[in-house]
From TrEMBL:
InterPro entries: Glyco_trans_2-like, Nucleotide-diphossugar_trans. PANTHER family: COLANIC ACID BIOSYNTHESIS GLYCOSYL TRANSFERASE WCAE-RELATED (PTHR22916:SF67), GLYCOSYLTRANSFERASE (PTHR22916). This is Glycosyltransferase 2-like domain-containing protein. GO terms for molecular function: hexosyltransferase activity. SUPFAM superfamilies: Nucleotide-diphospho-sugar transferases. CDD domains: GT_2_WfgS_like. It comes from the Bacteria. Residues 4-124 form the Glycosyltransferase 2-like domain.
Amino acid sequence: MIVSIVTINYNNAAGLEKTINSVISNDLYDIEYIVIDGNSTDGSFDVIKKYESKINFWISECDSGIYNAMNKGIRQATGQYILFVNSGDVIKEDCDLQSIISQITEEDIVYFDMEIADSLSKTSYIKQYPSNPDFKYFAEDTLPHTASFIKKELLVKYGYYSEEKKITSDWAFFMDAICLLRCTYRHIDDYFSTFYIDGISSNASNKELLIDERNEHIARSYPLYNALYRDWIEKRQELYKLKTSISVRYLKKLGFLKWFKL
C-alpha cells in the first residue's frame, strides 16, 4: 500500500526545511512525498531544490489559498491514503512511519493523537481524540489532519476541500465525512506528529472568521440541527462569561462554589 505525504508551503522556508527533514529521515519505502509551494519568495524554492532527490513530486506556483494548494496535492497523489504534514509541522524524531502505516487497515479515515506545541512558550501536550466523534464533537472541535490518514478515494468522492472557505475546510470535510457520508474510521491511541499552533487557523485574529465559516457551514449542511447548535453556542458563551466574571472568581476563591460545576 502506497501512502502519499503532502506538504504545502508559502514563504516559510525554515518551517519547510524542518518538515521535509522530519519526513525524509524515515525509510520512505511505500511512501510518496509531495511538496506544493505557492510560489514563495523567501528561499523556499532553494530548500525544495536542496532535497529534490528525496521528493517524488513538487511544484512552485501561485495558488488561491491553503485548500487550493492541498487540492493540488490530492490530485497529484497516487497513494491509497493521504497524510498532510504542512510546512512547519513535523513527524517526531523517533517515529517509525512504516510501523505507523502498518496499523492502517481498510477504514476511510485512520487518525492518531497528536502533539500540539507552542513555539513561543516552548511548551507542548499530547491531545487525545475521541474514538467516536459525533455532531456535538464537531460543533466545537475537529480531527487532526497532521495525524490522519485519509483515503484519496474519499477525498475525491467528497469533492476535494472547499476552496471557498479560508480556514475551516478540513474541519468541514471531517464533519461531513463522518456525520453525512457515514464513512468508516478508526482512532489509534498513539501519536507520531507535532502540530505547531502558530499556523493560520490557530491565529487568535482569525477566531471570528473561523466561527463565521463554521456557522455558515452548519446552517447550510445541517439545517435541522442549526437552531439547536446556535442555542448551544449561546449557552456556552453565557457560561464562559459567568465562569470568568470577577464575582464568580472571587466566590470560587473563597470556596463558596466548590459544590457547583462552574
